[in-house]
Each structure stands twice: as C-alpha cells, then as structure tokens.
Amino acid sequence: MNKVSFRKVDVDGSGVFAREAGPQDAPAILLLHGFPSASHMFRDLIPLLADRFHLIAPDLPGFGQSDMPDRSTFTYTFDNIARVIDRFTEVVGLDRYAVYVFDYGAPTGFRLATWHPERITAIISQNGNAYVEGLSDGWNPIRAYWEDPSQANRDALRAFLAPETTVWQYTHGVADQTTVSPDGYSLDNFYLARPGADEVQLDLFGDYKSNVALYPTFQEYFRTRKPPLLAAWGKNDPFFLPPGAEAFKRDIPGAVVRFFDTGHFALETHVDEIAAAIRDFLAP
C-alpha cells in the first residue's frame, strides 16, 4: 500500500493544501487539477503510481482545501494562480518534475513550463488544452463574457456552477454512467457552494481569455524545447475536443496521443488505463 499524506503548505502567507505520496528521491510528478475540482480528482491515480514516482497534487488557490483569499486581497487570474503554484513548488523543494495537467491545470502548468523550462522533465496532458482547435462551441457563453464583460453576461455563466452541471461534466460522454462514483462531483459541489466561491469562479471564467492569448507562447515553448509529451484524452469531452490533443504533434512530432472512450473527467472511468500509459511513457 502506497500511503498518501495530506498537508497544508504556507506559501508566502497563503495556505496551499496538497496530497503527496511516493519516495522523496523518486522522479517527481506535479499533478494539477481543473474546474470545478481539486486534488481529490487524483485520489485513485496516485496510489497506482506511488511505487515509482514522487507525486504531489496541490489544490489551486480558491479550490478544495487551499485558502480562498477574499477577492479584495487576491485577484483571481490564471497568472496569479500560476505564481502561487510556482512558489509552492519552490517551498516544497520540487526543482525537477513532470507535470500532469488537466483543464485549468493546463494553463497553470504551461505557464510554469514557459517560466522555468529547465525544471520540466515531461508533460502529461489529460484534456489540458493549448490550441484553439481544441475549444468546442461549449465555450461560446464564456467567449461572450470575454468580449463583453457585462453583468448580464457574467450572470449567464452561473449555470456552469449549478450542481446538475457538475454532475453532467462528470457523466457526459461516459458509456456506462454507473461507473462514475458520486464522490467526486459531490465534493466539487460542496466546494462550489461555499460563500464567495461563485464570484471567484466567475472571475476565472472571465480571465480564461488570457490563456487563449498565451496559446502561441505555449506552442513556441513546445516547438523549441520539445518536452516529452503524452496526451491522454477523454475523446468525448464536451469542452476540449480531440483535435486539441492531435495538435500537440504539430509542435512536438514525438508526442504520444492516446484517446479513451470517456468524457472530460477521464480518470473517473479510465484510471487504470491512464496510469499504465503514464508508466509506459515515463519508463526509464
């Protein structure tokens, strides 16, 4: 049994919760979750890899068990979230690591990679997008808010925060919905229901345009540094389409692209297959 430990790390006065497992001297993997989740999305993956890797999965600021600073003292942008996670890696002593990115974790992790390319040993992108062709029409209401950040357009996005929408994100595109545990989406909905969490998430919807603006920068990093990259993609994802996975090969010809017959939260149904793919990909 590979035991997982849980702790809250002080990062320049802000508490960042993390779960961690595996030998301290093993190759490291930083696991970055997405919306509206937290590091609990890796609860089944971590034990499958902890015999060979040192795994650490923080909750992003405002998510999960990490602190959710008031919006008057912390501006919820992806740049700021990435800066906190960047400092987190330094505080916990991660100087060389592979990064597993999913959803919001992708623009966070890709920022770290462009800031410190020498620290990144490999990238595993599980429905973590960096190409315009990967964005589905499901982004249209959020795009409307980017173009016109009116209160009406902001309020229209509250539907994305509804409990039934979270369940839909977990179950859409899954062949057998009885294979999706309610634990993940129930905990996500608990966190989303906290006072102030809705405004934090709406701020991040608005700032997601900064990620799209950085796609050329991320792609330039891929082209010039050519990090080993595995795209492990739920092919029925309603937000991030398969062409977004295939596009990595344009900049990293040696990228490995694997599709799984599932939706956005691919680990909920295909954790064994994705763990095996990671072990093969990162084999010495």
What's the gist of this structure?
The chain is α/β, with parallel strands linked by helices and about 280 residues long.
Characterization of this structure:
With 284 residues, this protein is an alpha/beta fold. The chain has helices at residues 45-49, 78-91, 105-115, 140-147, 151-156, 163-171, 182-192, 197-225, 242-246, 248-251, 267-281, and strands spanning 4-11, 14-21, 28-32, 54-58, 97-101, 120-125, 229-234, 256-260. Strand 5, helix 3 (105-115) and strand 6 (120-125) form a beta-alpha-beta unit. It is globular. The model has no long low-confidence stretch (mean pLDDT 97).
Distance between the termini: 23 Å
Unreliable stretches: none
Shape: globular
Biggest sheet overview: 8 strands, mixed
Q: Give the averaged pLDDT, no decimals.
A: 97
β-sheet strand percentage? 15-25%
Q: What structural class do the secondary elements suggest?
A: alpha/beta
Order of helices and strands: EEEHEHEHEHHHHHEHHEH
Strand order of the largest sheet: 1-2-4-3-5-6-7-8
Q: How large is the count of helical segments?
A: 11
